[in-house]
From TrEMBL, chain A:
GO molecular function annotations of the record: sarcosine oxidase activity; transaminase activity
Keyword line: Aminotransferase, Oxidoreductase, Transferase
Family: Belongs to the GcvT family.
Ranges that cross the membrane: none
Identification of the protein by name: Sarcosine oxidase subunit alpha
Organism of origin: Halomonas fontilapidosi
Highest taxon in the source lineage: Bacteria
TrEMBL record, chain B:
Protein name: Sarcosine oxidase subunit delta
Superkingdom in the source lineage: Bacteria
Any single biological process term in GO: tetrahydrofolate metabolic process
Top EC category: oxidoreductase
Keyword field contains Endoplasmic reticulum: no
UniProt keyword annotations, A-Z: Oxidoreductase
Protein EC: 1.5.3.1
Keyword set includes Plastid: no
UniProtKB/TrEMBL annotation, chain C:
Keywords from the UniProt entry: Oxidoreductase
MF term (GO), any: sarcosine oxidase activity
Name recorded for this polypeptide: Sarcosine oxidase subunit gamma
EC class (word): oxidoreductase
Gene source species: Halomonas fontilapidosi
Enzyme Commission designation: 1.5.3.1
UniProt cross-references to Gene3D superfamilies, sorted A to Z: Heterotetrameric sarcosine oxidase, Probable tRNA modification gtpase trme, domain 1
Pfam families in the record: SoxG
Membrane-crossing segments per the record: none
Length: 1016, 118, 211
């Protein structure tokens, strides 16, 4: 397999290692050290994609992150699919498989290319908005078609076999970019003793020095790079991160770095020492200071048909020749506005191929590189530019003409030059994306013809990133930035020795963005500004004519700089064109905002280890294994896994069929009402409250009274926010005169503790009280049902006599030989004991209860049965019956409100606000469906008149609804406007399926309204 | 992702350890019963939304569990100072460069947060 | 003293104890440490854990009298006794974590309460609610960098420091009692998650579990 464009020598590739790869189904060969783009160019592959909107053939334009066209889909297997990979950033590995992202059905013969040929008329800017907006209901259909046609890549449908992770990094100085500025900055900062991280997105560190013509200390620049890197690698305070892109710059110098650790080794990460390797790693870096040494992006010129394969930016030509030993054509025409781009012509010539001409837009270029080109005999056409490329699937010629820059017009007749490659350079744009992430609007500098970053405190730019280009100056600038960053943090600056570089005399550049054409822009062949999003100069001009004057609006209307491209090549040209059309200056037009991420980041790196079984913490109680072994189905309550119900093998089972949820819950409910059940209640929040003012504090945060609760007694309490709305509830026990144990809802535990601290720390610091979470210390098992006393009596030394240990008492003693606090409280309405033991003993006590409980029919039950039983009693669940808009009075819980407490407790004042006192507030009631078989839907809306025209006035909704085995009927709790005055009335619940249920408003207490059962 | 100097822990800590709790210096009226509905509504529901210097209440939830205040610039996101409950800010709308007369100065903490800027 | 209910939740009866990691061991096993292990994990279960609340000056005197070590008054301070068996860690300006050999905590609480009589303070026994996990080995720091957001570089996290911070998607008390050893105080209900995370993140370092 030949590589027609591979030079016989030169470049930094390893010619001894041949690598095979497949692109669009065809096999090719490259070398170790190639990028996929370099290898494609070496093999003479011209078309790498079809364009986004017009489906025009596209080739490789650049050599780095700014590449707009060569965006490929990687992967030989379904699981290995990776979308949106720039071929210029993908190292070649043996067996690499890639295909074009766009191009349907294939890039060579594209069904949509007809659209592209004629597209000027058919697809103006705003085309999608204008064409596909009506009817709106079809937008989803259109979108699918457009996306398929546009081809934004696709994610794999199979599970990714690779692993990813995060690393939390902290450093004094973070240096982004390892070109001359970044290396000098790192050396300076590191020598001062600061902890330094240096990251660079490329396969090799060195940046522009890897393809520079300059010699450093008389040696090739790459040699100095190797020495500098060796020095840094030997320093303990330096972390070098190659293949690592700084993708997002967040607040206070928090920067996310995406390190591609094995992407250069293969499609999936190879094993190392028998271990799976991390494929991608996100470094979450908190830096003290940041040095942006991100260099520049070269701007291509905007001329007619500048998207035909064979049009490249000038610097990319030098990179391919000097780094990869690849010359991407035979005959070159260079079109430039500046001296630096002359490198491309010189490098091309030195590779042994023909330079047809250099079109220089300046009248009298005379810099050192210009003189070198002249001396080599290259034809230089001054005051000229390429106005149009010829060719279809590859450049076949260039039309060069004299141009009047001020008048924006072509002067005289164009000359057509025979060539297959056009390199262009309209100057250099500092890479300001990261600075932009921090909110700084960049500043235009006329002397540089570029935006330079506006930096927040603690960030500095070095080298090309703020418009310093000459290598010697860049090195010195980097050293200064690195030293300054370290010394600002208190490190002693140490001077470093920089290499000697001969100064080069460059002439001034001229301002050229869009090259004029003989025809007006709107009728000239397409002049592309943003190749990735298919935005043309005509499109921008049209947008401004249609009244889009703000550059942000132009961007959104034309899609310039959208998506994964983020305007790396095209934005400045686009702004310059908008400025010309609007008769404004570039700084008047301004720039759009660049957003993270700088280049696409794989979801794997974002997620890291937080996936699969580690996606979210699962909190377990001390009895969790028992629940698992006994077949529990689990419910998520916050992060806790709570048993939901325990399905048993059905009595009539043939093959071990399990009960349905309804059957299991009915059985569990009956066990509690008729015999005895047991619930793992360990998840309830528990707060230990100590201090002489503990009682006073409780009186202020609960709605009810606590002044007289005696040691040994327990009380239920409601908590409101100061707006009078209920937000949590639970029981609090008086352990000692100055000692209480508060319980909270499972989900509210952390929030309630923070709430107590908030009031103590900010409003009432004078109160002597401390709060400590003891949730995890105790395991809690609730035994409840008529047989509960008998079972507990077998295992405890506590006197269970109904007078000695009354309802709402707590006692301490031993249960199954383990020290325990037992609380006689009930959430089921039955006789109940909540046994609390230190969690390390929990399994023993739980087992002992079952060993003794079998004869009483001890039945484990889960949260579903707990809900049914409490709802039958009309007990609320904070967060289910309440939603932040429900007062204690709305719940009918006036009995739990101490209106005459001396201190104005939290929520009290709000209960007399006009809104909380008004008539017609939603109030808690019970609902009994007219058809006992119906279980109303939770959340269902309630109406009074089902014949009312839609929209019907809604008077409330169902908050809880279950089937009750005790009542042998469905039943529900609901909030209904004025509900407490509507007992006995019929309400209606229209359902989505057209049925309307009828229900009667009843008391929310369905079982044992006098509360006798819990008092037995 | 902010880097916040906890005035109780005495060092800069990651934002993930903190919870924001809204505008600072909202004192609960001493005698709620004496408030009109409007006054109580103001206390409950109405907060400033300045472009510029803002005082916020935060809690070092995963840490020392202490509440404290932050003076933050809502445009630059710069945290100008953090200070303990009961202390007054040095940077205010009237004194954007610091040095508010009302502030019981706490230069050490100002200096420490000054290591971090948006 | 009688105003507070003191309760010994431990018993001398022969009752099988289950550490917070018991279920995780049974479920995921405990890979043995080998010569290749660059980090080892060891649980120190069933220790006595007390939360001490109060003013530093008042508590310091009592702690020195009862435990023989002084209370770390500076933020993030961690102090150990000569044997390294008993420790006090600063958690907040009025909160400290005391860890002592299992079985000592109730006596200690009583003696502290006696020494502190009359002062405003609180002591809460949380021994059942948390466990101590030790990490040792050359890769311990990298494993922590994968797990906690706090800077664990030796220049920032010297011996004698301890912090409460974010660990993966939960929280942890992280401390450095000696040059070679890191300690994680893990809440019982999060122990399983924490253990799984450490095994997963430690796989690359051939993590071994000593039991």
């Amino acid at each position: 397999m030949s590589q027609p464009n591979r030079l016989s020598q030169g470049g930094r590739i390893d010619r001894s290692r041949k690598l095979h790869f497949t692109f669009n189904g065809k096999r090719y060969q490259g070398h170790a050290g190639d990028t996929l783009a370099a290898a494609l160019l070496a093999n003479g592959v011209d078309i790498v994609n079809r364009s986004f909107k017009y489906s025009r053939p596209r080739g490789i334009v650049a050599a780095g992150a700014e590449e707009p066209n060569a965006v490929v889909q990687l992967g030989s297997s379904e699981a290995g699919q990776v979308p949106n990979v720039r071929a210029t950033q993908q190292a070649l590995f043996d067996g690499l498989v890639a295909r074009s992202t766009n191009g349907w059905p294939n890039v060579q013969r594209d069904m949509m290319s007809l659209v592209g040929k004629l597209g000027g008329q058919f697809m103006p800017p705003g085309f999608y908005y204008k064409t596909f907006m009506a009817p709106a209901s079809l937008w989803m259909t259109y979108e699918k078609f457009i996306r398929k046609g546009a081809g934004l890549g696709r994610s794999p449908t199979e599970q990714d076999p690779d692993i990813y992770d995060h690393l939390h990094q902290h450093c004094d100085v973070l240096v982004i970019g390892a070109g001359p500025a970044g290396l000098a900055a790192t050396l300076a900062a590191a020598r001062s003793g600061a902890r330094v991280i240096l990251c660079d997105e490329q396969e090799e560190m060195g940046g522009s020095l890897l393809d520079a013509r300059e010699r450093l200390d008389g040696k090739p620049a790459s040699q100095w790079v190797a020495e500098a890197l060796a020095t840094l690698a030997g320093m303990e305070n330096v972390t070098l991160l190659p293949r690592t892109t700084a993708n997002g710059y967040h607040d206070h110098h928090f920067v996310t770095l995406h390190e591609r650790r094995t992407e250069h080794l293969g499609e999936t990460a190879p094993l190392r020492d028998g271990h799976r390797q991390v494929r991608s790693r996100m470094h979450r870096v908190r830096a003290g200071r940041v040095v942006l040494a991100t260099g520049t992006h070269e701007r291509p010129l905007v001329y007619a048909n500048n998207d035909v394969p064979g049009n490249l930016v000038a610097g990319a030509v030098s990179t391919y020749v000097r780094r990869y030993g690849v010359v991407p054509g035979q005959r070159l025409v260079l079109s430039t506005s500046n001296d630096h781009a002359y490198r491309a012509a010189l490098d091309w010539l030195e590779s042994g191929r023909e330079v047809v001409a250099i079109a220089d837009a300046r009248a009298n270029p005379d810099g050192e590189l210009v003189e070198q080109a002249r001396a080599q005999g290259i034809r230089i056409m001054t005051g000229s530019a390429v106005v149009e490329a010829k060719g279809d699937t590859r450049v076949t010629g260039a039309r060069v003409a004299k141009v009047d820059l001020d008048g924006f017009r072509v002067v005289g007749k164009a000359e057509t030059l025979d060539c297959d490659t056009i390199a262009s350079s309209g100057g250099y744009s500092p890479v300001i994306h990261l600075a932009s992430h921090t909110g700084g609007r960049p500043t235009w500098r006329d002397d540089l013809l570029a935006f330079v970053p506006t930096l927040v405190k603690g960030v500095s730019a070095a080298g090309g990133a703020h418009g310093i280009y000459a290598t010697a100056e860049v090195l010195a600038d980097g050293q200064h930035a690195g030293g300054q960053a370290a010394s600002e943090l208190g490190f002693q600056a140490v001077s470093i020795e920089l290499p000697k570089v001969a100064a080069r005399r460059d002439g001034p550049a001229c301002a050229l963005y869009q090259v004029p054409h003989e025809k007006p822009t709107l009728r000239a062949p397409k002049q592309f500004v943003d190749l990735q999003n298919d935005v043309t100069a005509a499109g921008i001009e049209l947008a401004t004519r249609e009244g889009f004057e703000s550059i942000e609006h132009v961007k959104r209307y034309t899609a310039m700089g959208f998506g994964t491209d983020q305007g790396k090549l095209g934005n400045i040209n686009g702004m310059a064109i908008a400025a010309r059309c609007l008769n404004k200056s570039i700084p008047e037009v301004g720039t759009t905002v660049f957003r993270p991420n700088y280049t696409p980041v794989t979801f794997g790196a974002i997620v890291g280890r937080h996936c699969r079984e580690l996606f979210d913490p699962e909190r377990y109680t001390a009895m969790h294994q028992w629940h698992v072994e006994h077949g529990a189905e689990f419910e998520d309550v916050g992060q806790w896994k709570r048993p939901w119900y325990f399905p048993q093998v059905r009595a009539d089972a043939v093959n071990g069929e399990l009960e349905s949820m309804a059957e299991a819950v009915a059985r569990e409910c009956r066990a509690v009402r008729e015999a005895i059940g047991i619930l793992d209640a360990s998840t309830l929040g528990k707060i230990d409250i100590q201090g002489p003012d503990a009682r006073e504090f409780l009186g202020r945060v609960y709605t009810n009274k606590w002044a007289k609760l005696a040691p040994g007694r327990v009380r239920y309490g409601l908590m409101c926010k100061d707006d009078g709305m209920v937000f949590d509830d639970g029981t609090t026990s008086c352990l000692g005169e100055n000692h209480f144990l508060m319980t909270t809802t499972t989900g509210g535990a952390a929030g309630v503790l923070e709430w107590l601290e908030l009031w103590h720390q900010t409003e009432w610091p004078e109160l002597q009280v401390y709060f400590t979470s003891v949730t995890d210390h105790w395991a809690t098992m609730t035994i409840t049902g008529p047989e509960a006393r008998k079972l507990l009596a077998e295992l405890t030394d506590i006197d269970l006599d109904r007078e000695a240990f009354q309802f709402m008492d707590w006692r301490e003693g031993k249960v199954a030989d383990v020290p325990a606090r037992v609380f006689r409280i009930s959430f089921t309405g039955e006789l109940a004991y909540e046994i609390n033991v230190q969690a390390n003993y929990a399994q023993h006590v739980w087992d002992a209860l079952f060993a003794h409980g079998e004869k009483y029919g001890l039945t484990p039950y889960g949260t579903e049965t707990m809900h049914v039983l409490r709802a039958e009693k009309g007990f609320i669940i904070a967060g289910q019956e309440t939603d932040g808009s429900v007062t204690p009075e709305d719940l009918g819980m006036q009995w739990c409100v101490g209106y005459d407490k001396p201190f104005s407790w939290i929520g009290q004042r709000a209960l007399t606000r006009e809104d909380t006192k008004r008539e017609g507030r939603k109030q808690l009631v019970g609902l009994k469906p007219k058809d006992a078989k119906v279980v109303l839907e939770e959340g269902a809306q309630i109406v009074l008149d089902p014949t009312h025209a839609i929209p019907m006035p809604m008077v409330g909704h169902v908050t809880s609804s279950y089937y009750s085995p005790t009542l042998d009927s469905g039943f529900a709790l609901a909030v209904i406007k004025g509900g407490q005055q509507r007992m006995g009335e019929t309400v209606y619940l229209p359902m989505a399926d057209g049925q309307t249920h009828e229900a009667e408003i009843v008391s929310p207490i369905f079982v044992d309204p006098k509360g006798e059962r819990q008092n037995v | 992702m902010f880097n916040i100097h906890c005035p109780y822990c005495g060092e800069l800590r990651e934002e993930e350890e903190f919870h924001p709790k809204g505008q600072a210096h909202i004192a609960r009226p001493a005698d709620p019963a004496a408030c009109t509905d409007e006054e109580w509504g103001d206390y409950l529901f109405f907060r400033d939304n300045p472009r510029g210097i803002h005082h916020e209440l935060w809690v070092h939830a995963v840490g020392c569990r202490k509440f404290f205040n932050i003076t933050r610039h809502t445009v630059s996101y710069e945290i100008l100072e953090t200070y303990k409950m009961g202390e007054q800010p040095s940077f205010t709308a009237e004194y954007p460069q610091g040095g508010s007369d009302a502030a019981a100065m706490h230069p050490a903490q100002v200096a420490q947060q000054a290591g971090v800027h948006a | 003293m009688s105003n507070v209910a003191i309760f010994d939740t431990r018993t001398d009866a022969k009752i099988p104890l289950e550490s917070p990691l018991a279920y995780a061991y049974r479920r995921f096993g405990a890979p043995a440490a080998t010569a290749r292990s660059r980090v080892t994990l060891r649980e120190r279960p069933f220790l006595g854990h007390l939360i001490l609340r109060g003013g530093a000056i008042v508590l310091d005197e009592a702690v020195r009298e009862v435990l023989g070590i002084s209370l770390p008054g500076e933020p993030q301070g961690l102090v150990l006794d000569a044997e390294g068996e008993r420790s006090i860690q600063w958690l907040s300006p009025d909160e400290w974590l005391v860890i002592v050999p299992g079985g000592e905590e109730f006596t200690l609480e009583n003696r502290l309460r006696e020494a502190l009589a009359g002062a405003h303070f609180a002591i809460s026994n949380v021994s059942g609610g948390q466990t101590l996990v030790e990490l040792e080995g050359e890769a311990a720091r990298e494993l922590l960098m994968k797990s906690v957001i706090y800077d664990v570089h030796p220049s920032h996290f010297p011996v004698g420091k301890g912090v409460t911070t974010v660990f993966a998607k939960t929280t942890v008390i992280l401390r450095r009692p000696s040059d070679a050893r890191w300690e994680l105080v893990v809440r019982r209900s999060f122990a399983d998650y924490t253990y799984r995370w450490l095994l997963d993140a430690g796989e690359a370092h051939d993590i071994g579990v000593e039991r």
